[in-house]
User: Fold these one by one.
Assistant:
Number 1:
Amino acid sequence: MDPRFEALADLAVHGANVQPGQVVAVAATTGQEEAARAVAHAAYRRGARFVDVTYFDPWVKRERVLNADPETLAYVPPWYGERALALGEMDAARISFSGVVSPEAFADLDPGLSGRDQLPWLKETSQLIADKSTNWCGIVCPHPAWATLVYPDLTEDEAYEHLWRDLSHVLRLDEPDPAAAWRTRAGELKRSARALTERRFDAIELRGPGTELRIGLFASGTWEAADFTTRFGVQHLPNLPTEEVFTTPDPMRVDGYVTSTKPLVLRGATIIRGLRVRFEGGRAVEIDADENAEALRSRAATDDGASRLGELALVDGHGRIGPLGTVFYDTLVDENAASHIALGFGFPFAVGDEDRDRVNKSGTHIDFMIGSPEVDVDGITRDGERVPVLRQGDWQI
Amino acid sequence: MDPRFEALADLAVHGANVQPGQVVAVAATTGQEEAARAVAHAAYRRGARFVDVTYFDPWVKRERVLNADPETLAYVPPWYGERALALGEMDAARISFSGVVSPEAFADLDPGLSGRDQLPWLKETSQLIADKSTNWCGIVCPHPAWATLVYPDLTEDEAYEHLWRDLSHVLRLDEPDPAAAWRTRAGELKRSARALTERRFDAIELRGPGTELRIGLFASGTWEAADFTTRFGVQHLPNLPTEEVFTTPDPMRVDGYVTSTKPLVLRGATIIRGLRVRFEGGRAVEIDADENAEALRSRAATDDGASRLGELALVDGHGRIGPLGTVFYDTLVDENAASHIALGFGFPFAVGDEDRDRVNKSGTHIDFMIGSPEVDVDGITRDGERVPVLRQGDWQI
């Protein structure tokens, strides 16, 4: 086994904070076997009771989209969701790998069709996240095909080495003690989150090339960062890497237009470039793009909340991803390079009890990047005062 | 895609007789992706509603056996069995691949430990089979590592080609119309099964080198072959290849000793050579072997029925497997080369209502080969008369 996967796996079980006796669900894609086996090793060494690795096969999904009755494409067998909820009921851990594996499996499919099949995403996963009923970690996983996509001018071997180097840096695996490095960065992010929470802004405004967007916040809203704690008390790092501070905005008060600053890669590898979205009264009323707008439109039409915001995240210029200037075509990495918003479900734990029922509900959650050094971020106070929040990637508060 | 996998997949969906609108569960092992994707293609083309491919990863199981608390090794998350039973409730189809993939994953493990973890086998699968609630097909799937095990003197490429040639022959994929060839062979097997059923033998005796075994039969017992029909009326070929006629014997009336005529490969790839079992009053009271007896002993100790017989199968010398003279180290192929018995659950559908409760119950089912041209098979009538059944592989009835 490539020892780099052992280091990645050690960080993954640290991120999820796997507890002795826990069942650990590992969500991998075919092609990520080496990482999955390394995580199984690391989790069993931490005392896991059972490591349940599932492999999603993009080529099987491709056969479905190409050959199944289009009317059946949204069907999900009941045991998928039942397993997810059972994980929550038994206080399990979850580790899932992000990263591109088989971009060619979906490249030539009709995005209107492939968007109907949201697997491996499950709407029940949003409930696990909202309920804080699993300690979990989504972590990036290098793959040669991903490397070729990110560094098309290099040979496959060179590209793969380059991807490992970049991702090791981004994951702080190039530090003598990656866990300690994450504690330090988590401290910084949580300080920013606290500062934003204390300001109690009524709204956030983003202004830059192609973007003029006002996003209303809940009066009881809080800003979160870096780590979560489950309802049974296990602190964990749900995303590695993570460079964001985020909240769940008011899904009824979003107005203006926004232009994405990075490509959006829908899980399943459909790449949406040049995305432009216009919001009215919280709803995404126009979705356009240079490529594959229809894939996002069909995702945004899956339920009522899929066309409203569930997340607003701000990313400063001091993380490790933005400075690389690289498009990774993977949401988990790219979303931590720049401020972003997400259509779909929000986070009930980021508001007080009085606003919990107003948090956006949806079976989906799609992040897309709208920040850059050229995008100014302001907070609007309840008195209508405008307070600079981010300028050229630097916190102003 | 290797077009041979397309032909194999076409035969698999024909064997399972996949119906339009069905959910199709495909059980594969990592390394069998090409076959799984080909089956997904073929099943969707037949109108499947959803093809649910699961990949069992032997290397993850290896990590468990090496690193988990031994006391937890029998644990199976509840959703495994719940999914199996849900397949039965929704009248689903099942296709599973047999064949060796990663023999080295278990070769050096303590068989007493690895035998505690029976995955990917599920006890609920025995209920699906007993209830005839799914139309299913277990089919062999070639793999280079399997080929190297079977033909150790050839190069990997030569061995793989040789395995494809042998298995194509055995699967009748070398016939212009494999489905028609299976209809013909199924007709022959069912004629032999009818002849055995009509004799209403009280017992079967096997005698040969190292074997002198008497197996009592149920008065209401029937002999089955080649195809099953689900409770909802779908005829299917549950095993491909199949060359056997079989019944479920009386689990209380088995006496004598038996020596296996081929190695037994437990799912998970532990190879048991030189197996010798002694029965008293139906129970396997002694299990010995030249190699890995402990793996079978621990399987036979999993529940009360695991040390009693659930199956007696007779194989004539006119199938396609026996004449090859090859040990395939895979039960689905090897069991169809020679007469065999199985410890574990029996088949309630092979007896009348009056004997149904007496059929052996167990969560396991382990076939091992006890027949050869040197083993004579006799039927014993209710009057104690001895009637030759098989001599040198030829039917005498």
Note: The radius of gyration of chain B is 20 Å.
Number 2:
Amino acid sequence: MDLDALTHTSGEWLRATGPDSDIVMSSRIRLARNLADYPFPNRASDAVRADIEQLLRGEIAKSPAGKKLQYVQIDALETLDRQFLVERQLISRELSENHGQRGVGISPEENVSLMVNEEDHLRMQVLRSGFALEECWRDIDAIDDAIESSVTYAFSEQFGYLTACPTNVGTGIRVSVLLHLPGLVMTKEIQKVFQALQKIGLAVRGLYGEGSQAMGDFYQISNQATLGKGEEQIIKTIKDVIPNILAYERKVRTTLVQENRQNLHDQVSRALGNLKHARQISSEETMHLLSSVRMGINLGLIHDLEIPTLNELFIHTQPAHLQKLRHERMETAERNAARADYIRQRLTVPPSTN
Amino acid sequence: MDLDALTHTSGEWLRATGPDSDIVMSSRIRLARNLADYPFPNRASDAVRADIEQLLRGEIAKSPAGKKLQYVQIDALETLDRQFLVERQLISRELSENHGQRGVGISPEENVSLMVNEEDHLRMQVLRSGFALEECWRDIDAIDDAIESSVTYAFSEQFGYLTACPTNVGTGIRVSVLLHLPGLVMTKEIQKVFQALQKIGLAVRGLYGEGSQAMGDFYQISNQATLGKGEEQIIKTIKDVIPNILAYERKVRTTLVQENRQNLHDQVSRALGNLKHARQISSEETMHLLSSVRMGINLGLIHDLEIPTLNELFIHTQPAHLQKLRHERMETAERNAARADYIRQRLTVPPSTN
């Protein structure tokens, strides 16, 4: 896979074409699976890890979905390229930072990624733009079935799929939806949402998953428990609760526009002005301003700019992307200048038509 | 004089054509004079004020300079129009807020204004763009001589010209230079300048003179004493000290650009971005941002924008100007929106060629 070629593109899941994509950035389902005959990666020697990697790489290549995937040997990549894949959400931080032989199979649309020797032997992930959990489930279930038909997963009649960390035992499923909730953040209603979600066993995380800060008003809602419920039931819990959050976010946005249109218009327009004129800008400020502009577009306060462009900018302004775009290593100050240049260039040319 | 016609124009002194106009916005000299045979305005009855006004209006009309002046009866104007003339620096706050019959003769270029029944019977003012005190003095001295040839001024052999307030007795002269000193403000060196000026008997005031706040990094430097020194000597004191301040401001600007070009470029560029994108903006923030942009143009960090446009915006975004432009009375919130609209419109069309 030519990683450099990816720098100017963006994954299918950023195209903002899916349902409710004004608020739902993406839907994602990942499954954690392990081979029955091998120790978990954290217990495996380098030689055993190499065996696992070779075996699963072969199985992926043979599977129907795998035929379209490009396989990237993660341990052969430089730090910058690994970070680049993390920023695109194609691999996890865990896979990037792990040691030993490991890899990932990535679909050309960047919506399927199968990670080998992450925390578990196999982590399969399907991403979709917008609110599309059923499609994610259909795709990942097919991929899982195909691989399971030729390997023996570690499975217990009592517990279900066995995983390196007990939090994934059972279904091994993590269902998550990435939401853009600037209205609830602005009106400070977001805490109520978090409390309600916690009560039904759902977790709230930032853009880059576990332990990451909630930047740019993005929140990942996902299931905590993987045990004691079937996959469909876990998906249904999230699928049922999300529309309530969407309705809540839309309601506060409408109220904000009705009661304070001028203030809101001023804020989103100035955010765009700062993005278009900054000569140096941090990643954090970028996320914050892009978030305002994204809401401004959705509320019809900003024209001549498209959501996919904004979605791309969230990813393309991350450190590794900037450095790959410039083909050079850069320190923070240089990145802040390069980021400002890139944003200015992207926002002052006519929006792309795709 | 058609005040409405003025709303879209700006005075000669804003054209930034004079010497050192990167830093010196304008030079101004005013003379305070009183008629020998009448009490000072604050001691005069309404009937006597009316007599004074009629007499001086006639004298102004007869004088060589007066033939070109348009005379405006201030007491016949609405509050908004009076405020409008204050904002353009054509009349003082005192003349605007005084009572009884009073007026002002204004030259078409808006660089001469002769106020009748201000604190004194006659206040004569000449404004010039840039650092041009000698030209101001030549013009105002000629106007003063012409009027003095046909009226008798209150004059004491011992003290000189007599005035309503003792601070103006003697020469009745106030010499002032309006400086834009963003570099000295940013580097916090400005206090040193103030202290040095105070030691040589010069006062520092804001854009609108006595009691006004220093907004947008504008400072008026003027003489305190009018007694005990001749006019030329007072002018010379200011004329000699200003080049030192200009050199100081230019030095800190150069240092700022050399040592912190990126930060400075970011700051001035974002200031322009906010001006171009705001949907509501206060007068104070406007001054602050325009000040940054003005410095950015002078330092070559901002292109495609001319200093006269900026100078005009400082005046045209004042409350009365905005209301006259819109032909309606507006509360603060409405003005903040109108101001943002006006600025956006002025900064997004190509700069005027005059």
Note: The first helix of chain A runs from residue 3 to 6.
